[in-house]
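Help wanted!
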Amino acid sequence: MRAQQYLSRPSYRRARALLTVSIAVSLSACWVPPSASVRPAGPPRVVSEGIEVDRVAHSAWVESVDQTARTVALNVHGNPVPACTVGRSVRNWGEIRKGDQVKATVREVLTVYVPPVPNRSQDARVLVVDPSYRVLTVQYPNGVTEALKVGLGARLEGIEAGDSIAIHPVEVIKLRLRRHAMPVRQAW
Amino acid sequence: MSSFSAAASPRSFGLAALLLLGALAARAQAQISTAQATLLQNAIGARVQALTILGGDFGLSDGSFRSSSGGVGPAERNDVETRVTKIGGDGDVGDPMPLDDHDIGWQPRFQGNMGYLDSSNHFQSPLLAGDTTELKTFAIEFGGGARFWTTDHLSFAPTVMGLYGRTDDSYTAQSTFGRQNLAELRQLGLVDWSVDTWTVRPALNVQYLINLGRTIITLSSDPTGFYTHGFSRSNVHLRVGHDSGLVTNKIDIDIPLGIELYNHELRGGGYVSRTDLFGDLKTGLDVQHLNEVHGRIVLDFLNQLWKLQWLGLGASYLWGTNISGWSVGADVAFRF
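Answered by r_m:
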């Protein structure tokens, strides 16, 4: 009896109607998961270039160090990052050795294009673009995805899922030592 | 910092049981009849549920409420001050994942809140002048559900939460009438009582996103039900076990301003909302609906600092049936 009273109230009738509409709309759903492997539309072209990002690698391994040229080559999750200049703002540069585990912030410049475009490497592909918050989610060839915050001046119009990305590391702007490389034991 | 003020209708009987008590005392000046006691006990039950929801549910604003209202005449008006402090929120976790073979994406959703409410009623009616009653409610709620995306813009989030609350009433009798009748009022469960409550809170959030350039407009509707039962009552006459509901319809706008401060983009925006209250929530608070205009100015931290989406300042102006007010405070959003 009490349950019947509740079910006849306008608020419950409205809630029930909303639920019915929700179920009906759900049944006609057309959501598709984001995919970086979709074929980009249009002819081969450069969609946008000079997109500056500061990419933070929370755990990277130092592959090589050139103290004289002030360059370092890193490996992030199995993806080698070509040797690039270490910025003057990195004060602990002298402590860094080959094999160290570091947290690195690398300033990179991206070029987004529809292949084939000459002299462009395909380092990643676009998965999701969020122009409002300037977040470009990319997928690397090994399947790892990463969300990159792009600079305020970057032009994101026209970038779509599936577009190819060429990544050019410019400078290491922050470097924090997480763990020194294990010293090699001498055989006696 | 926030401040709310409320002005109840002089003819309203729903605001609080103890406002009725003031009116009753002014008129009866005698012992309390069974019918009157039942009326007060029902009003207390509605008030307990309303305060538990106001104090513990993340869907309603916190702040300081002040009301000047009473029973049936100006002489019976009382000052009621209510302060609500809350910490909590809601959020969808991760990116949407495909739901089996259907063209629907889904992501888990968690909601939680903890709140404390303190409501003081200073009686001003001739018989009870100087008497005060204080209601304290502690409430905690937690639950979750899932958000289902039917398109990139339209989503539905059914959720279920559990809410535990405890409400204590303490009455300070200074008036002759209060001192003489305190024992009877206690025996009837009208003053100096305590009760624990549990509430089941089913809800559905329907949301539609509109992208206009870099601006995001979010339309949402939140029908919510509250099914409350009392237990561990200090007095057998206390009856808490009623239903409430609310529906909030909101339009939110989030605008990137293209200006950088300390390497973070400034964003402006806010929302306009209307909340309709039903059941004991409406009668216990004596509020039928509540409108809110909220403005915010924040810095974008998304993908720059942990899971923080934005941090800044927000301000609201509220108005509705028997209530108006404003609030200012930190505006923080996370994206998990």
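OP: Thanks! One thing I noticed: Residues 45-179 of chain A form one domain.
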